[in-house]
């Protein structure tokens, strides 16, 4: 039954996509614009015949892997994923996302598209704010709520947020409301590589934070910064900029600290020499080839520094990190595990008393988001995430 459910979800994910296109948004000169009505859905770029053939070939390859994995999965021993259905799904996802196929290169819905689709399902009006540098933020809940989550999404800097991201945020807002707490979320859409390379995304994150602190008049002490995967990388870049201003980015004029910093499977290094990159190769749905391609697109030949590679910075760089509390979640079975543990050790030298960490047994990369896309909400990291965020929503 579990395998059947996973296959149904995966089959939907490889169907020929429809691309949602937002209507133009009128804006104030050189600043921001906002709209509060649903965008029109339109048919996206049509795949040419050659692309369709390659897509079909990739889909056939993926289905073959699924069938073989179902047969061989029971004999995977300790090398495979924690359960049979996850073993099958993760192997399929690795093929589905492999850079040698075109599946991961076909235009899909943007972050704003995913947000608007979620709001439509919930019969709520969307609230999107656009900035002159191309960044956009999507609001969940009221701007006036006591605690505001600024969420920076994952996707290796080459993919938009997923429906699972929207579901996670929506569930947090609903749980906070049921606890009589005031919580809202400002969800950033940043430009993706290869169309936009580093430090574009960091500039857009700075813009979103300036908007919250200056335009919306929300102090850092009311903001919880959340980043998953590449979003965790971006969140740490933003934290570095607060403490050590990047010379090419606007300075954030605030003496406050974030109310909290939550990192879910943060991408802290582009290096792939950690032992778990081999140990967990068959346990995670991430693939080294795709990560290498994505990091190359993101960096575009640029210089590696502490703002894009947090693990490269020493313990003193992180002294006095600008957050009242820090929580870092990761999966024991993910490719990033060793790098994340090394980063936690470095961060904890001067911030150990305010840093909480969970390495969840049997869970893979960015488990709360992946599971939310599958309709699963019982994972260890998901429970820890809810508990930590809701504790700050008072």
Automatic annotation (TrEMBL):
GO molecular function, one term: hydrolase activity
UniProt xrefs under PANTHER family: AB HYDROLASE SUPERFAMILY PROTEIN C4A8.06C, STERYL ACETYL HYDROLASE MUG81-RELATED
Lineage: Eukaryota, Fungi, Dikarya, Ascomycota, Pezizomycotina
SUPFAM superfamilies, A to Z: alpha/beta-Hydrolases (SSF53474)
Protein name: Alpha/Beta hydrolase protein
Domain Alpha/beta hydrolase fold-3: 149-366
Protein's organism: Truncatella angustata
InterPro entries found in the cross-reference section: AB_hydrolase_3, AB_hydrolase_fold, GDXG_lipolytic_enzyme
UniProt keyword annotations, A-Z: Hydrolase
Pfam families referenced in this protein's UniProt entry, alphabetically: Abhydrolase_3
């Amino acid at each position: 039954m579990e395998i059947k459910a996973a296959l149904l979800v995966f089959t939907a994910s490889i169907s020929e996509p429809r691309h949602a296109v937002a209507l133009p948004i009128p804006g104030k000169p050189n600043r921001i614009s906002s709209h509060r009505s649903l965008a029109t859905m339109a048919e996206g770029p049509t795949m040419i015949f050659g692309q369709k053939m390659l897509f079909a070939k990739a889909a056939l390859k993926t289905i073959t892997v699924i069938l073989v994995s179902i047969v061989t999965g029971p004999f995977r021993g300790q090398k495979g994923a924690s359960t049979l259905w996850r073993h099958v799904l993760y192997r399929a996802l690795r093929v589905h996302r492999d850079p040698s196929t075109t599946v991961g290169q076909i235009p899909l819905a943007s972050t704003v598209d995913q947000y608007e689709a979620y709001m439509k399902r919930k019969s709520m009006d969307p609230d999107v704010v656009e900035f002159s540098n191309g960044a956009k933020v999507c609001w969940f809940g009221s701007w006036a709520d006591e605690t505001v989550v600024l969420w920076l999404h994952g996707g290796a800097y080459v993919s938009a947020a997923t429906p699972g991201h929207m579901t996670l945020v929506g569930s947090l807002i609903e749980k906070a409301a049921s606890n009589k707490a005031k919580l809202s979320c400002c969800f950033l859409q940043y430009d993706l590589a290869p169309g936009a390379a580093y430090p574009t995304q960091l500039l857009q994150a700075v813009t979103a934070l300036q908007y919250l602190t200056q335009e919306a008049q929300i102090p850092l002490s009311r903001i919880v910064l959340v980043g998953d995967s590449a979003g965790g990388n971006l969140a740490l870049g933003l934290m570095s900029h607060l403490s050590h201003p990047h010379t090419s980015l606007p300075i954030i004029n605030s003496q406050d600290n974030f109310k909290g910093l939550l990192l879910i499977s943060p991408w802290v290094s582009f290096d792939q020499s950690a032992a778990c990159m081999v140990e967990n190769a068959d346990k995670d749905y991430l693939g080294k080839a795709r990560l290498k391609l994505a990091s190359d697109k993101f960096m575009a030949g640029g210089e590696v520094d502490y703002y894009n590679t947090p693990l490269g910075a020493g313990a003193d760089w992180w002294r006095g990190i600008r957050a009242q509390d820090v929580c870092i979640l990761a999966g024991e079975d993910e490719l990033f595990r060793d790098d994340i543990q090394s980063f936690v050790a470095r961060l904890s030298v001067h911030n150990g008393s305010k840093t909480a960490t969970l390495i969840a047994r049997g869970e893979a990369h960015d488990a709360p988001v992946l599971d939310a896309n599958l309709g699963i909400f019982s994972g260890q990291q998901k429970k820890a995430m809810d508990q930590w965020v809701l504790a700050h929503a008072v």
